[in-house]
Amino acid sequence: MAFEIPSYGWPEATLYRYQFAADHVASLEGDVLMHLDADMVVVDDVGADLNPYAWMGGLAFVRHPGFRRPTGIRAARYYLGSPRTLREDLRAKRLRGGLGAWESRPASTAFLPRERRKHYVYGAIWMGLRDPINAMCAELASEVRVDLAAGLIADWHDESHLNRYAGDHPHSLLDCDYCHVEGWGNLSDLQAKISVVDKGSHLTRE
């Protein structure tokens, strides 16, 4: 099923995605819904390892590939091969409380206090049971409208709002095999299920 939506410029075209979803979710079939950006490619079987009815809060978000780091001995090898990344990560944790690019202005509805910044999720893919997705999209669509009325646009648009929501609501976190980027050393231990068409800077948040 396809829905025609108005033609918007940037960044309205991405900011309004929650409103588009809220407007049309009642017309969609199925108990589980997924948002996937157009520049994502399914490259392997998806879903066999997922149990939506076990997701916390009925929602699942995916860790942002730009901020995912290996663990254990892989982490040591990764940072030894990239001492600059180690310095940048330590600085980010000191300044922002973790690896991510959360909205920095308290006046924005997308702002998330430092103590709730547990992980940074990717705006290009999210999924969940129908009712939790509907509730999330309605709330975020409202917050976007509030910001726009105040003359504010979140630093990373819809992704900033999603990360505020993730920080304030229970959810399950999926790893970056659901948003894999070929050739990235921090993802080398993962087998891609969904890949991102690498356009460069859109995966980097400063």
Describe this structure in words.
The strands form 2 sheets. A 4-stranded mixed beta sheet has the order 1-4-3-5. It has a two-stranded antiparallel sheet with strand order 2-6. The protein has a single domain (12-39, 50-176), classed as Spore Coat Polysaccharide Biosynthesis Protein SpsA, Chain A. 33% of the residues lie in helices and 14% in strands. The chain has 206 residues and is α+β, with helices and mostly antiparallel strands. The mean pLDDT is 93. 31% of the residues are buried. The protein is built from 6 helices and 6 strands; from the N terminus they run ααβββααβααββ. It has helices at 12-15, 17-24, 73-81, 83-96, 130-149, 157-168; strands at 32-36, 40-42, 59-63, 121-129, 172-174, 194-196.
Order of strands across the main sheet: 1-4-3-5
Proportion in helices: 25-40%
Secondary-structure content class: alpha+beta
Count of strand segments: 6
Largest sheet: 4 strands, mixed
C-alpha geometry: globular
Low-confidence stretches: none
pLDDT averaged residue by residue: 93
